[in-house]
Amino acid sequence: MDAEKKVISRVLDKHYGKHALLVGVPQQYSLLEATKIPCHSLVSPFLAHERQPGFIEGDLHEIPILTGSVDLVVLPHTLEYVDNPRHLIHEACRIVKPEGLIVVFGFNPYSMWGIRRLLSQHDVPWVSSFNNAYHIKNWLRLSEFQIEDHTSLYFRPPVNSEKVFKGLEFLEYMGNLMHFFGGLYCITARAKVIPLTPIRMKWKQQLGNIRISTTISGNIARQSESLK
Q1: DSSP symbols for 95-138
Q2: What is the number of other CB atoms lying within 10 angstroms of the CB of residue 24?
Q3: Which DSSP state fits 36?
Q4: 76 and which of 21, 105, 175, 180 could share a cystine (Cβ 3.0–4.6 Å)?
Q5: How does pLDDT run across 41-81, given as a tens digit for each residue?
Q6: What is the pLDDT of residue 195?
Q7: Beta bridge partners of 44
Q8: Burial letters for 119-157: b for 16+ Cβ neighbours within 10 Å, e otherwise?
């Protein structure tokens, strides 16, 4: 959580807005504290032990938020615990405003963390489905989002010994050489706005004895055969 707070604080350093939404569990709600957006909300299928402002209990298959009403949506490992992650991406994209952002955290299956998952699938987070970052970015592009950032972190293996974990810290500095092999990834995407350019049409169309001219706005002249 601390590492992900640092990443989200960096990628959202220049992003402002009013409403930020996290789709996940109540324990992840503190991730929004790293943003500069004032109004925070949480959508979760789980009940919170302590009711807090902005908490919304809802089904992740249909997020109960108005279309195009949120400046930021954060999905912290949420896609790994749903049956249809692509549908959840589509729902998250639906509620984002134009020029709004989506931030997705996930575990990389092609890393030491992915190997650890193959060896033990009985504990959290190893019981979840690790999604390929390549697929996540494709789903975002299909929803008319532009990828702005892809950050990898935790190049060390997930070991229980704190002493061993600190001893392998040099692997983090080698991350630039093996960027796509980090145990965790953070993908940031922005909702694209397609500009509409009005085109002035200059044409005339003859419909029987009715002549429609676009050069004079709103003028429809009816001509009889005798006048011709």
Answers
A1: TEEEEEEEEEEEE-SSSHHHHHHHH--SSTTTTSPPPPHHHHHH
A2: 21
A3: S
A4: 105
A5: 999 887 666 667 788 888 888 898 999 999 999 999 999 98
A6: 60
A7: 57
A8: eeeeeeebebebbebeebbebbeebebeeeebbbbbbbe
> What does the angle CA 105 – CA 114 – CA 150 come to, to the nearest 5 degrees?
35
DSSP E strand boundaries for the chain? 19-23, 39-44, 55-57, 70-76, 96-107, 145-153, 184-191, 204-207, 210-213, 220-222
Look-up of token digits 């004032």 = 38
* Whether 42 contacts 21, CB under 8 Å: yes
Q: Which among 5, 18, 82, 19 is positioned nearest to 56, based on CA atoms? A: 19
Domains along the chain with CATH numbers = 2-191 (3.40.50.150)
| Cα 128 from chain centre | 19
Q: Strand order of the sheet with strand 204-207?
A: 204-207, 210-213, 220-222
- Are 86 and 143 in contact by the 8 Å Cβ rule? The answer is no
Type of residue at 129 = S
pTM: 0.78
**How far is residue 162's CA from residue 83's CA, in Å, rounded to a whole number?**
34
